[in-house]
Amino acid sequence: MDLMQNDPRHVIEADRANVWHHLLQHKPHDTIDPRIIVEGKGMKVWDINGKEHIDSVSGAVWTVNVGYGRTQIADAVRDQLVKMCYFAGVAGSVPGANFAKRLIEKMPGLDRVYYANSGSEANEKAFKMVRQISHKYHGGKKHKILYRDRDYHGTTIATLSAGGQEERNAQYGPFTPGFVKVPHCLEYRAQDGWEGENYGIRAAEAIEEVILREGPETVGALCLEPITAGGGIIVPPKGYWEKVQEICKKYDILLHIDEVVCGLGRTGTWFGYQQFGVQPDIVTMAKGVASGYAAISCCVTTNAVFDMFKDDTDRMGYFRDISTFGGCTAGPTAALENMKIIEDEDLTGNSVRMGEYLASKTAELMDKYDCIGDTRGMGLFQGIELVKDRATKEPVDEKITYGIVGDCMAQGVIIGGTNRSLPGFNNTLLFAPALIATTDDIDHIIDGVDQAIGRVVYGK
Ligand SMILES: Cc1ncc(COP(=O)(O)O)c(C=O)c1O
Known about the structure:
Elements: H1 8-18, E1 37-41, E2 44-47, E3 52-55, H2 58-62, H3 71-83, H4 94-105, E4 112-116, H5 119-137, E5 144-148, H6 157-161, H7 166-169, E6 179-182, H8 199-214, E7 219-224, H9 240-250, E8 254-258, E9 282-285, E10 297-301, H10 303-307, H11 330-344, H12 347-368, E11 372-377, E12 382-389, E13 394-395, H13 398-411, E14 413-414, E15 416-417, E16 428-431, H14 439-458
Parallel strand pairs: 3-14, 5-6, 5-7, 7-8, 8-9
Antiparallel strand pairs: 1-2, 2-3, 4-10, 9-10, 11-12, 12-13, 12-16, 15-16
Helix pairs in contact: 3-11, 4-11, 8-9, 12-14, 13-14
This protein binds pyridoxal-5'-phosphate (PLP).
Pyridoxal-5'-phosphate (PLP) binds next to helix 5.
């Protein structure tokens, strides 16, 4: 082995010269070193300079739900890979079959698991299913897919076409036709005239208005996050989901719920939609399925959806789709162990308990600082919305958000923030720690945020 490969200076220079990082402006790397993370254990990660950080966002994008350094997952993946690493999904695999069965046990009313390897890809699968159903059964007419303002469903052109975050989409058009936006349901920023007790129902009725405007015979599916994640941690208000379900049934519209962030366990139930008693037709998931120990995503459907493709009278009528890496056995193997850890350690229960603690701590910060306009979330998934003025709710400039995130990072506390997503509204701090978080971990994170707000907003 090339001994240079372990030399920090060599790694940093190789990275600087040849790696194109995600979501990053690279100009600062002309003068400062790129960040390189080399080790993780539990809630902590260490960078290449040996600096320790506590991670309140599970690998920056809410993924490592069971925490770092799980040898149980690594050992199972290693054993599986030497036995059988890969065969395309035209055939089955032992971990693929076993994980599908275990997953479906957690999702009453759903039946079939389609494997892929990223959240975007799982959502693309769902979109393709909707489009093909439209062609097979509705003469191609019922092809439109509704998505919600502020939601995010991925980074590919079709998933950006279903993306409600204008800054994410900017400069990447033109987009795929047939995607139609419905309004968001953030009560704190209720649309004019919708405020009040019935806000949830009003926000759902706004979806019906779009359906009627477009023509229900043209709308095939409604795609929603159970809780909007990167769009600012938006928990749908009371009455919303019941009404959404009713509308979908009324107009024969498939309900596709994107659980890429909320599955598995993030909010305190296996999936976010289970908090609201709603019954989807299609559920997509990725990040927390194997906690990032292997790449895996799933597009899960009911048998009613599956059976629409089980028809050998039409030679083109089956789902003619493949994901090459959806056949990797590492994914379902890691996912089986990940699910076992969540069960054995009652991490959904911990998410509820520690979620309440985290919410009480963000509420304390709100008592202390008038730059906090709203705190919200569910389980270990919480946000803090920053404002210039509580009365007008004018959002802070994004440099305040990024300043707080940066100050925390300098303290060794990794937090998140709405990131070049929503014009004028990149003003929410995001927390989604591993589901193993303790009160001490949360105190550590909140102490960092407290100091950062004091310095960045009040110059203390
Ligand atoms: C709700 C949601 N859906 C889909 C995606 C896309 O997942 P991936 O980056 O794995 O393609 C994300 C990523 O952040 C997400 O937050």
